[in-house]
Write a structure and sequence with these properties.
This protein is an alpha/beta fold. It contains 15 helices and 20 strands. It binds S-adenosyl-L-homocysteine, iron/sulfur cluster and FE3-S4 cluster.
Length: 537
């Protein structure tokens, strides 16, 4: 039966009710056509995802729910009946990207009156709905990140039995935010129903903890995503097991701070031996609860019949230096599947700036943790995040950050100029570094890191790296610095491929298209500041 598409109802004004949803159509169910000629339309959807891996993972869940409800995916905005925008609020520029598209969306809606736009993700913060309507006039329905599991119901696409309004709220500072209490259960239900549309068939995101309990003064995330909620240990291991069975080669455990995983879970006799202690930051009683170290060991412990890790590559982001425990460092060293890469955001190289940022560690402490991990996992690649131009940052304090980069010699640095986020504690400090200075500092820092990254990459020339091949680069696309010149393009039917080493460095190589999704050994021949090039070994 051909299901015609019709307009979705305007929903934001309607309180969701259990009787509002109508049964989803199964596309080939003849009875539906026979008895329900007025069956509700199933929209073709497009999802635009901004921001971090957590958003990408959330979008996989939303896409899966829409597909399970019987909707099709549109090729793009132009042929969609439903546009879902999964926003990022980390900096003003990220929000402006979406605000700047409102005109285009309004035009699309004028041309196609059936089109509906849903806005979700970190820009949707509870106290802000009136402001949201002003900033995003083309949007019909706003969902906080913790309300995303309700997408289908709120659109009237789900069965009448589906639970609605599972979200609870709590306070972070003076702000009311979604508590994310139910997200672990929603994830479990989505997994049980097979309704997660993964972006890749080889590399998977696996959320382990939602929200953030830290109080970094510049950061919007605790206000968008609420307090930390860990998923139950066994559910995570079960998801990893199913990913292994489905042939996934790489799994990345996700959370704003994966290192604090488990502190909010009930005490469990299986973990009686665990008593990790924080060396900095607020005290937490973690006794008898699972932690990330235990989780890495359990997932690494999933083995094939020949004793190899069933998931050959295990990663996790992001780690806060507070919780980089000795237990975690030992687990990283002991587990062969855990990749030799750690993303450890430092934010600034100056203690006074760190104090104003509320990071609650000193550079000495950070360097002590780094030394520990480098000793335990020799050659480990380290990446970081830096904010330049935070409130009150002097030239000398900025120089201290450059000095830190020189001292640590990061493999990769993600840097940004400080951007004031409404409602965060730092709004009470003066944003007094002129934007021209922020820009200059950012450029200076990126230039400095470029030569450090180049040197780090050059040191890998001549080695053999295991690469997980991720994609085919369209021919004559040479925007990356370590690619061969066009004249060198392969002639034997092979294509340009890219993938990542265990150190998470981008690697270019040539080979057959069938290598996508496979782990291969690559002899590294050339280095650039941001990538490597090599040949199949
Ligand atoms: N949970 C992670 C970070 C998530 S946000 C952690 O704490 O490590 C990713 C990065 O965005 C941060 O590390 C920080 O460098 C940057 N960031 C956060 N808020 C910002 C702001 N207001 N202005 C500029 N950069 C910011
Ligand atoms: Fe933001 Fe800090 Fe939490 Fe990271 S740890 S998400 S920077 S509050
Ligand atoms: Fe952005 Fe939210 Fe991630 S603010 S960085 S999408 S947690």
């Amino acid at each position: 039966m051909a299901t015609e598409r019709r307009a979705l109802p305007m929903l934001e004004a309607l309180a969701p009710s259990p009787t509002f949803g109508r049964p989803a159509i199964q596309p080939d169910d003849q009875r539906v056509g026979e008895y329900r000629p007025e069956a509700p339309a199933l929209p073709r959807f497009a999802i635009w995802t901004l921001g971090c891996q957590m958003n990408r993972s959330d979008s996989e869940e939303m896409a899966g729910r829409l597909l399970s409800a019987g909707c099709d995916e549109a090729a793009g905005f132009d042929d969609a009946d439903l546009i879902v925008i999964n926003t990022c609020a980390i900096r003003e520029a990220a929000e402006q990207k979406v605000i700047g598209r409102q005109g285009q969306l309004a035009k699309l809606k004028a041309a196609r009156p059936g089109l509906r736009v849903v806005l979700t993700g970190c820009s949707v913060r509870e106290p802000d709905r009136a402001g949201l309507r002003r900033r995003y006039p083309a949007v019909d329905l706003f969902l906080r990140p913790d309300e995303e599991p309700e997408l289908i119901d709120r659109l009237g696409l789900a069965s009448a039995q589906a639970a609605i309004g599972t979200g609870t709220t709590t306070r972070v500072g003076r702000t009311v935010v979604g508590a994310a209490d139910h997200l672990a259960d929603s994830r479990a239900a989505a997994l049980a129903g097979g309704s997660i549309r993964r972006e890749s068939a080889t590399s998977a995101w696996l959320p382990i903890v939602y929200g953030c309990d830290k109080t970094c003064t510049y950061c919007i995330v605790p206000f968008s995503r609420g307090p930390e909620r860990s998923r139950p240990f066994d559910e995570i291991v079960a998801e990893a097991r199913s990913l292994a069975a489905a042939g996934y080669r790489e799994v990345t455990l996700l959370g704003q701070n994966v290192n604090s995983y488990g502190h909010d879970l009930p005490v469990d006799p299986r973990f009686a031996g665990i008593a990790p202690e924080r060396s900095v930051g607020r005290h937490q009683d973690r006794h008898g609860r699972p932690d990330l170290a235990e989780l890495l060991r359990a997932i690494d412990g999933l083995r094939t019949s020949d004793g190899q890790p069933a998931i050959p590559r295990l990663r996790f982001v992001t780690s806060h230096p507070w919780d980089l425990s000795d237990r975690l460092i030992s687990a990283m060293a002991d587990c062969p599947s855990v990749c030799e890469h750690l993303h450890l955001p430092v934010q600034s190289g100056d203690d006074a700036v760190l104090r104003r940022m509320g990071r609650q560690y000193t550079i000495d402490h950070y360097l002590e943790r780094l030394a520990r991990i480098r000793e335990a996992v020799p050659g480990i690649a380290i990446s970081t995040d830096v904010i330049v131009g935070f409130c009150g940052e002097t030239e000398a304090q900025f120089e201290a950050t450059l000095g830190l980069l020189e001292a640590v010699r990061y493999d990769q640095v993600f840097a940004a100029a400080y951007s004031v986020r409404p409602g965060t504690p730092a709004t009470h400090m003066a944003d007094d570094v002129p934007s021209a200075d922020k820009r200059r500092r950012l450029n200076e820092l990126l230039a400095r890191q470029e030569s450090i990254g180049f040197e780090r990459n050059r040191s890998r020339v001549g080695t053999t790296a295991q690469v997980l091949v991720e994609s085919i680069v369209p021919s004559r696309s040479h925007e990356h610095e370590a690619t061969p010149a066009v004249e060198d393009a392969p002639k034997d039917g092979s294509v340009h491929l890219t993938g990542r080493s265990r150190a998470h460095t981008l690697v270019h190589l040539e080979g057959r298209a069938e290598l996508v999704g496979r782990l291969v050994d690559v002899r590294i021949e050339h280095a650039g500041p941001y990538s490597l090039r090599g040949a199949l070994a």
